[in-house]
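DATA SHEET
Item: assembly model
Revision: 1
Owner: S.N.
Input lines:
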Amino acid sequence: MTTPGHKELLEMNSAARIDILSCNLPLAYISAIRARCPEIIVHRGLDAARLEKEIRGTIIAALVWGVTPKNLDLLPALTMVQGLGAGVDHLLEPDVVPPSVPIARVSNEFQAIGMAEYVVLHVLRQDRNLEAIYERRQSRQWGQGYLDHAGARTVGVMGLGNIAHRACNALSAVGFEVRGLSQTAREIEGITCFGTGRLDEFLDGCHHLVCLLPLTRATKGILNSRTFNRLANGSFLINAARGSHLVEADLIPALDSGRLGGATLDVLTNEPPRHDHPFWSDPRILLTGHSAIASALRPENIAPLIAENLYLVARGLQPRNLVDRQRGY
Amino acid sequence: MTTPGHKELLEMNSAARIDILSCNLPLAYISAIRARCPEIIVHRGLDAARLEKEIRGTIIAALVWGVTPKNLDLLPALTMVQGLGAGVDHLLEPDVVPPSVPIARVSNEFQAIGMAEYVVLHVLRQDRNLEAIYERRQSRQWGQGYLDHAGARTVGVMGLGNIAHRACNALSAVGFEVRGLSQTAREIEGITCFGTGRLDEFLDGCHHLVCLLPLTRATKGILNSRTFNRLANGSFLINAARGSHLVEADLIPALDSGRLGGATLDVLTNEPPRHDHPFWSDPRILLTGHSAIASALRPENIAPLIAENLYLVARGLQPRNLVDRQRGY
């Protein structure tokens, strides 16, 4: 059976109402979804146990924004849990989503473009030492001579999903040598691809390391001293995946040793970080506040996908962008 | 006749010495050229009239680094003037190079990569408001919500030569809509191309304008109020070509009116600018000190081309990367 398009879904939808549970959705998202799916009846809450009993039976989908909902097993009609971001690791924790309920995530071109922008910006910012330009502006110094390094610079991108793919192509178009790492080795023109079994070979001598991996048991803590020590001296780190990919205690020692020349972190294990988190005050580290694919998360950019999935499950069909629980993303 | 390669040239070169005039070449360049062309005898000077008469007759090539040489017509054996950069407008001024003497410039992949890096870095820096991230770092603020703008952003690149071509492709790979402007309209996949006759159409509504044009009578002052007024409100300017492309007096008014949101200038009419130049202190302007393709100018990156051209002219052959004087680049 082919999945029907949005228009077909609109026509075939016969449900008078689509009851959903909003777990922390900002109002702008609900408005944008309602504009495309006027049948929604929105119930709010993070804990299904706190809903009135008769409401529990009506909810067919839970939409989740950056929180971990509770007691979803109390919703007998639940047919989908929809995360609003690309990462769904919080929904894959044990006992969060009942095993029979499919989990969907958001995957769209806006994310891929936003991440490509972020990755290319910060690779270039660090590679070309943009901070030195700002310092020269302070002292009104013109001219910088040529850059310290010559020849091809290698960027290793961990992850080769939809989001990482565009970042790799963009880096390659600029002129970088690009290596990609994925669970199963892939073939992509212009990118040297490695399976995770060849991690060391992938890392060896990279001038930049960019983490765009999903967070799973296998990838947690993958950014650690041992990993850094295989990179080129003075190399640069970008983590735009999940905070727990990085062993935070290993970062400042790697910068102090000169192995790393700088780090750009969009994510941290605990967000937002405390004011006295040492990463705030280290000039070699730039924290970017989980903004990498921020524009991809604009309500009007994701509402169409959410509305479509609601119509699909309301008709008893499978939602799009399903998460493979076994694989972890 | 096919032009011989470097190896063939080495073998066929029979001259015991190749006398050259160095007009302002830093020592590192002379060393790098000598490493590939040990026959060179280097005479220094900006004014041929000040050379001893018997030396004048020996010089077959003048190598020029960012200055305007004088009295080259006093060198009867001169068969090439080689500029060391991509731009040669200073060599095309009247009475600088005798009409019969060919002018060569440097054109290599390093320039194209360096410029693509520069353009993509600064388009993204301005588009994503990197300064706001630095400000948040000061106040230790996490999170920025989504960006103000959604949907495709258009970058207009003026110039479609070797250097601009890679920048266009890289911007397109990131996710920008890219327009290119060239003297004669071209067809490039993924880029919307305009001939200079359709300048207004090219400019209309661009969110970024990037100038990579050669400096000619037709392009001097092309970055002016009239041009800016066709762009989108709050758009961004990058000039990495020549200072005289910009009517400097028009810039701050365009920023004050909100038509331009910011400007990145790698070049100015007078370089280096005086300490009290108003562009230094305007936070909306970033001066980058003629560094865009700085790494392309590393001696080891251009010496091979120069050595090859010296061997070519020593054998009575035409040098590579000749400038078309009529066209002006």
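QC remark: The mean pLDDT of chain A is 92.
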